[in-house]
Amino acid sequence: MKILDQVEEISPAISYAGLIERIEILRSTLRWSSRLERADIDKLLRQATSLRDEVMQLSHKERFVQAATAAEPAVSADQSRGARRKALIERSFIFEGTFGDNPRLLESLEIAEKAAPTDLPVLIDGESGTGKELMAKVIHANGSRSDKPFISVNCGAIPDNLLESELFGHRKGAFTGASNDRKGKFESAHTGTIFLDEIGELPLAGQVKLLRVLEAHEIQRVGSDETIAVDTRIVAATNRNLRQLSEEGKFREDLFYRLSVIHVTLPPLRERRDEIPLLIAWFGDEAAGTLKRRPVRLTPRLRDFLLNYAYPGNIRELRNVMYRVSCLAGDMADVDHLPVDMRPAAPGSAAAASNVATATGQEPISVANLMSLSDAKRAASDDAEKAFLERGLREVSGTVAELARRIDMNRSHLQMLLKKHGLHSKDFRNRNAPSTGRNGADEHDEEDSDS
Ligand SMILES: Nc1ncnc2c1ncn2[C@@H]1O[C@H](COP(=O)(O)OP(=O)(O)O)[C@@H](O)[C@H]1O
Ligand SMILES: [Mg+2]
């Protein structure tokens, strides 16, 4: 049995990750073998016994971290959030600009604190924009490698044929275009941390090579026989479910276990809404600083919207929105300053402004609180512009080129205005008219294609 033989080759000085991996190999051997010979059963039993012995000998450090990740959150959950954050500060924890005191975030930070001084691999998962890269930097900053390089690699952004050279470097002439010797990311990260972002996108061939580096702590440049020792701490991140990918055979199970010795999950922003007000204030101030302006004020309508929005792009989206409204608004920002695709279904209008009741059934907000005069003017002007365009599109049955000609406007400028107002020419097509010829079809497609 090949798998069993592989197990025996693993060195006896085993780490927690290696141990988990061996247990998994045993488990999958048992799961997949249709019938076991007596000799194989004996071998598995011997393996199980030696694993048990090794578990007993786990290093103090590893047991400490393991216990911290599993047990501590329950204990410290009783502590108030403020106290937990303060305790981190008192222990000189470096937050790297991580804000929020949601219990799930604090739990992740506390795990990061424990994991940071060790060299154990950490896997961070969470949706895009939840702060995975920031968390990786937090782990780096709180460890003993903080003054050494932090090298970030986006595994999803490297073409398959360049992956190996990107990660491990190459020798001059190793392939067409390799005009010089080149260092890979692992070598650059030597003595520091390598952040493998979007690890779920790594092709299977790359996974095998990565596994080898994790086991042997050495690399070979493409086209070279020489092995180079690398001492790199690995932090990986993914927005995919690696466990599921490995069940589907798309991600190597052994690599998954190697990488996820410490596993941190960052919850989406919609599951930690209590952080939104703090983040709004923080990013509002940050944007004001960057843009050299006074912090923007928000109308109750916009604030209400921002507090209830679903944030598919998570914290990154909230940050971008605060920068956008800080840039576009005068003293006071309103929902009209939001990107078109984010605005609430019934966009704010001057008419609605004087009589607005939010979807949550609150009382209408008085005009005085709602927006500044200049914002009100802008909203009214936007509304007039939109109504004009809608009427025009109806008249020309959605033919953008014709409308541009009639109102004597540059066509691409008109496309831009349509986009700004979320208008689609195809919605104005005359449904009774016979289907358009090539030109007509192109017309509509063009308008919709870049939206
Ligand atoms: N808890 C947080 N406090 C402050 N800023 C955050 C927080 N989490 C994420 N950010 C910011 O949000 C943006 C996206 O974070 P990033 O780490 O790149 O997310 P991901 O890698 O998960 O896509 C960055 O600008 C980051 O600084
Ligand atoms: Mg990222």
Automatic annotation (TrEMBL):
The UniProt annotation puts the region (Disordered) at 421-451
Against SMART domains, the record matches this protein to: AAA
Q: Which residues, if any, are the signal sequence?
A: none
**MF-aspect GO terms:** ATP binding; DNA binding
Q: Does the keyword Nucleotidyltransferase apply?
A: no
SUPFAM superfamilies referenced in this protein's UniProt entry, alphabetically: Homeodomain-like, P-loop containing nucleoside triphosphate hydrolases
The chain positions of domain Sigma-54 factor interaction read 98-327
Entry keyword set = ATP-binding, DNA-binding, Nucleotide-binding, Transcription, Transcription regulation
Give the matching Pfam families: AAA_lid_14 (PF25601), Sigma54_activat (PF00158)
What does the entry give for GO biological process? regulation of DNA-templated transcription
Name of this protein = Sigma-54 interaction domain-containing protein
Q: Which source organism does the UniProt entry give? A: Paraburkholderia aspalathi
